[in-house]
Amino acid sequence: MSTIPPEQLAAMEAGAAQFFSRDKGASIMPLHSAGFIDSLLMGIVITEACRYCRFVRTDRKHIVAMVALGVVGTSIASVFILLWMQILFVWGFGTYLDFGATRWFARYMSVNAGTTLLAFYIDRASRLFQHWWPAALIGPFAIGTCAVSIAFIRVGYAPYEYITFEMLANPAYKALAYSICSLCIVTDLLITLTVVYGLFRFKTGCTPATDSILGRLIIQIFEAQLPALAISVISFIMWDRAFQFAFPFVISQTKIYVLGMLITLNLRSTPSESSGTGTAVGGIDAHALDPVTKTYHTESHLMKDLSEVERGAKGQPEVNAKDEGDRDSIHIHYGSTSHLSPRPEGW
Questions:
Q1: Tens digits of per-residue pLDDT, 103-149?
Q2: Each residue of 191-238: pLDDT tens digit?
Q3: Which residue spans traverse the membrane (predicted)?
Q4: Helices 133-151 + 118-129 axis angle, to 10
Q5: What's domain 27-265's architecture?
């Protein structure tokens, strides 16, 4: 229930009507587009989440927990956005004051702070390098992003029921808004560069086929990370100049992070998608850890012991994973010879 006197609310409604009626295409259309984009991305999230279900039993529990958190969180964000759009364009049709209500955007930002799953990407980078330094490098920026987001909600939005010129002129509001955008840019850039560099390290130069596979994998990982980085840059540029045009990008941020996580995990394939001989598209087969004869194909599983690749390229006999005591490995085919190489933990 609003604490603003009815007379002041009527004056604010008249001011909002004058502002939004001046150019409806520039002021209202971005909000309408944000709802459409969110619904579209939510459908893709559901599709990717269904594809990921085949890995629930084999993935580590903390990865499954982060996936569940991300999907549930972004679903809650979509419910908030859907209710907001219903109020704007159905129940409150013909009124304009709700376009400036802060409660719905504050609720979305609260969910956004919990579903920007930077912990997942930090975990991926640390397992890729098998070292703690990626977490030490990226972790403080990720924690800072979450903390500043919470402060932004408490200081920038909580004291106000509606967006006013007083709120926009508040130095704390501007400082926190640009701090969030800056930290997101730095964090996303560090994650992208760290993961791409980690994958690039595994390019052997031994055979064109191996380098081609890893090159495609680098491109796929970069493509999964790029949208989140682009959204952070656009938000930083447009926040104070024309926020209505940045609004659809800000609204889609939770979906982009969750989709990037799901797409990265779904680069793998199940045993049913590999051929009976163990050869799969791309030439890399990741073998299961259980004693049952199963073959998991994935282009996201990387080679750790590259000297083994050279042995396979020289036509030496196939290495038996059981004899070597390594059942967590990658199967790489070079013409008529085949060879096993262990993958980094977590990939």
A1: 888 888 877 766 556 778 888 888 888 888 988 998 898 888 888 88
A2: 888 888 887 776 656 677 777 777 777 777 777 778 888 888 888 888
A3: 31-50, 62-85, 105-122, 134-155, 175-200, 221-239
A4: 170
A5: Up-down Bundle (1.20)
